[in-house]
Design the sequence.
């Protein structure tokens, strides 16, 4: 008895889309099904190795039956158990299909457009077939199962007879209509073309019986002949000069589930201590789920064209986790295990070469195609920074020249080298300021005070940035200095003397202000303020940005520990109107002077991106002072 089942809701949606597809390139269904068959044979190959079974002649067969309108694809791969049948063909769980689904959710884009870009998998059969029957028998199993579906209504499963291991898919093609000629997929020459076009590099023979004309006893006759339709040479095994950019891009999109062309393709061979071919891609967009726990970095690993494993992390340093691609090396054993990988000497050599190559390419991009590099930086700059601080600076030489920063001059992002070259001669330190964006940074009082001296600063906007600065410490003998820290020492001797004098004269007022502000460790006059009346600077040690990062971490971990706080120093501009006002009022109206001081402090907090302690009190005081 056949069991009748419903598709899982998401499968149904995708299926509906396939059935009603108006997509013009329905022909890709063949590529998808052949690729599944090939994957299944890969899996069987590994299974056979493990079970000491002779794999025998592995391959895929296509049969066309015009009378019954069926196209059949069989493989002698791993096959499926009943449970696998239900799980694999009844739900959407798999990478490519999943990425497709995500994209559908996200984009308003023409859906039919996306179909062509993605591997949409098994369900694509329903673009051309009104009924699909799957006969399958798993490796090592005596049972065989038949799965049948006419589309969205659900599917039926029952036991069946099947002599050989593997899977056979029978597609009953839809009837032709005004828009679509489905009968073309029953034509031998058409199917041969499609295999050549999309599946030529499939590693296993794709065979079909074709009619050929032959001379037999002086007569021309058509005779059936067994033909292998694909050349079986993987793309990366072909001579480099013969492979086009377009083929490489198409391969990327199909294999690594992206719908955009890669930003950069890196295709190279290495011979020497270790021989390998690498085909690497830098995506032009941030991969789906890149920042989620589920993102799987790593490259595909092949040995002599035979797939070993996906997501081999040992081939890439963690900070290059955005790189996609594959490595094929004849020096690796086919049944290498995950555990062995970590200690494999060859693999480490390959990893080093890959790292070097990718960094060289990035360096070249930075030098030759700045616009493209900026795009790269926007997507993956964070990872390069991660490379610096996660190695505690050990990788700094490789990476520091790849860093880009916006600066307070408001222009395009610059490298450290460019920044240093543009510094005035008397500027020793590389100053940086932290802000939520470049606009906010430009308005910081400390920035104006630097600019008064003709200096610019790097703008740090990412949380990790200060850690990067601390890890680097300096660049070419120029120390990195937080411009919001206390001792910048920007004044001339003359200015310093003048300031000392003014401070002495206003000593009592400054201690009055300090008393009004218990949170602050010091209130002092400063000559570095340009237009702003006050600014908050951090004492030596923890910076304000670090304080915020720690506070966020503490909130997340909920440790109950009081968060670390930076030392707060309030600097006051002795030339500001408000200071003059304070001087005039603090003895005659100390209450008012106290309110002004508190408001100034709150404003300094706001400018640094901190909340004011008591917004209601703050608002009340401002209103009263205005009135
Ligand atoms: N010929 C086959 N032999 C064995 N298993 C198969 C075969 N075809 C499909 N499957 C199983 O069904 C699953 C779902 O197939 P489907 O084509 O929808 O997704 P996928 O191949 O995993 O991903 P995608 O095709 O998007 O790359 C496969 O992962 C595989 O486990």
Sequence:
């Amino acid at each position: 008895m056949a069991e009748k089942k419903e598709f899982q809701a998401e499968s149904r949606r995708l299926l509906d889309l396939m059935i009603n597809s108006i997509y013009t390139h329905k022909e890709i269904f063949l590529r998808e099904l052949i690729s599944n068959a090939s994957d299944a044979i890969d899996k069987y190959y590994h299974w056979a190795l493990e079970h000491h079974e002779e794999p025998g002649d592995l391959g895929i067969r296509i049969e066309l039956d015009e009378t019954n309108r069926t196209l059949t694809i069989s493989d002698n791969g791993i096959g499926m158990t009943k449970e696998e049948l239900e799980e694999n063909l009844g739900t959407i769980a798999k990478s490519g299909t999943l990425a497709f689904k995500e994209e559908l959710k996200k984009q308003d884009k023409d859906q039919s457009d996306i179909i062509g870009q993605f591997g949409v998998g098994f369900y694509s059969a329903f673009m051309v077939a009104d009924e699909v029957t799957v006969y399958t028998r798993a490796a090592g199993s005596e049972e065989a199962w038949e799965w049948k579906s006419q589309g969205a209504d659900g599917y039926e499963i029952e036991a069946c007879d099947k002599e050989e291991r593997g899977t056979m898919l029978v597609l009953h093609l839809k009837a032709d209509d005004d828009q679509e000629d489905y009968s073309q997929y029953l034509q031998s020459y058409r199917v041969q073309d499609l295999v050549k076009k999309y599946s030529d590099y499939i590693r296993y023979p794709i065979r079909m019986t074709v009619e050929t004309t032959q001379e037999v006893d002086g007569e021309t006759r058509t005779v059936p002949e067994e033909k292998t339709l694909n050349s079986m040479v993987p793309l990366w095994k072909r001579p480099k000069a013969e492979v086009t950019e377009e083929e490489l891009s198409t391969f990327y999109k199909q294999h690594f589930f992206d719908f955009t062309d890669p930003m950069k393709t890196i295709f190279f061979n290495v011979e020497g201590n270790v021989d390998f071919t690498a085909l690497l891609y830098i995506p032009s967009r941030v991969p789906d789920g890149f920042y989620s726990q589920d993102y799987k970095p790593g490259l595909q690993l092949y040995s002599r064209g035979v797939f070993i494993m996906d997501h081999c992390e040992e081939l890439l340093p963690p900070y290059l986790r955005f790189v996609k691609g594959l490595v094929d090396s004849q020096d690796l054993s086919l049944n290498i295990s995950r555990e062995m990988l970590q200690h494999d000497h060859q693999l480490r050599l390959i990893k080093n070469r890959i790292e070097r190559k990718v960094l060289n390419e990035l360096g070249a991009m930075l030098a030759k195609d700045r616009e493209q590099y900026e795009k790269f930086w926007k997507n993956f700059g964070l990872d390069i920074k991660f490379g610096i601080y996660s190695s505690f600076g050990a990788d700094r030489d490789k990476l520091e020249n790849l860093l880009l920063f916006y600066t307070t001059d408001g222009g395009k992002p610059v490298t450290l080298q460019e920044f240093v070259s543009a510094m005035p001669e008397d500027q020793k330190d590389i100053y940086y300021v932290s802000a939520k964006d470049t606009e906010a940074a430009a308005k910081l009082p400390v920035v104006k005070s630097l600019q008064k001296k003709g200096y610019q600063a790097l703008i740090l906007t990412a949380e990790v940035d200060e850690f990067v600065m601390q890890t680097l410490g300096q660049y070419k003998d120029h120390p990195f200095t937080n411009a919001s820290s206390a001792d910048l020492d920007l004044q001339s001797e003359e200015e310093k003397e003048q300031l000392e004098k003014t401070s002495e004269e206003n000593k009592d007022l400054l201690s009055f202000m300090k008393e009004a502000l218990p949170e602050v460790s010091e209130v002092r006059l400063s000559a570095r303020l340009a237009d702003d009346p006050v600014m908050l600077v951090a004492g030596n040690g923890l910076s304000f940005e670090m304080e915020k990062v720690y506070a966020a971490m503490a909130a997340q971990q909920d440790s109950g520990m009081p968060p670390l706080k930076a030392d707060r120093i309030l600097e006051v501009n002795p030339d500001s109107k408000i200071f003059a006002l304070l001087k005039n009022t603090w003895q005659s109206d100390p209450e008012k002077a106290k309110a002004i001081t508190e408001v100034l402090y709150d404003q300094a907090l706001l400018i640094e991106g901190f909340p004011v302690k008591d917004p209601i009190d703050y608002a009340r005081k401002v209103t009263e002072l205005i009135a």
Notes: Residues 209 and 226 are 4 Å apart (CA to CA).
